[in-house]
Specification:
The chain has helices spanning 16-26, 83-92, 130-133, and strands at residues 8-13, 31-38, 40-46, 51-56, 76-79, 96-103, 107-113, 119-125. With 138 residues, it is an alpha/beta fold. The strands form two sheets. A four-stranded mixed sheet has the order 1-4-3-2, covered by helices on one side. The protein has a four-stranded mixed sheet with strand order 5-8-7-6, with helices on one face.
Length: 138
């Protein structure tokens, strides 16, 4: 059995198709694993191990406003094989960085916003050694 991992995140969005587009731009291998329309339209978008549960909001909610001083989820992070490929795809499709790319000794991190203002971190580890990957010194 694998180590513990996050199976999915459940996100309610104003525009389901735009959310699908963002995640499939970042992760072209993500496919719709399931979908339905009970209470609201929803999809599970991912691969065989992990997915994003996306639900269509009823009505149009306000755009997400990032404020790390208030309670709430600030961003969701994904470990990726090649952060440069993901960043290039997102930039090419008009998505914006929310924070400058961080190149550190044992990892590269890049942060992007979807069209609704949700923030996502993409991190590429440059070491297999846990102590190095988890180091907070540049």
């Amino acid at each position: 059995m694998k180590k513990m991992y996050l199976e999915h995140a459940n996100i309610t969005v104003n525009n389901l198709q735009e959310a699908i587009k963002f995640f499939q731009t970042a992760f072209p291998h993500f496919k719709i694993r399931g979908s339905g329309n009970v209470l609201r339209e929803w999809v599970h978008l991912g691969d065989e191990d992990t997915y994003i549960a996306l639900g269509q909001a009823k009505g149009n909610a306000a755009k997400v406003e990032k404020n790390y001083d208030k309670a709430g989820i600030n961003h969701i992070g994904f470990v990726v094989q090649d952060v440069e490929v993901i960043a290039s795809n997102l930039l090419k499709h008009g998505y914006k960085r929310s924070y400058p790319k961080q190149v550190e000794q044992f990892r590269i991190r890049d942060y992007f916003l979807d069209v609704e203002g949700n923030e996502y971190e993409f991190v590429q580890y440059l070491s297999e050694v846990a102590e190095e990957r988890n180091s907070y010194e540049n």
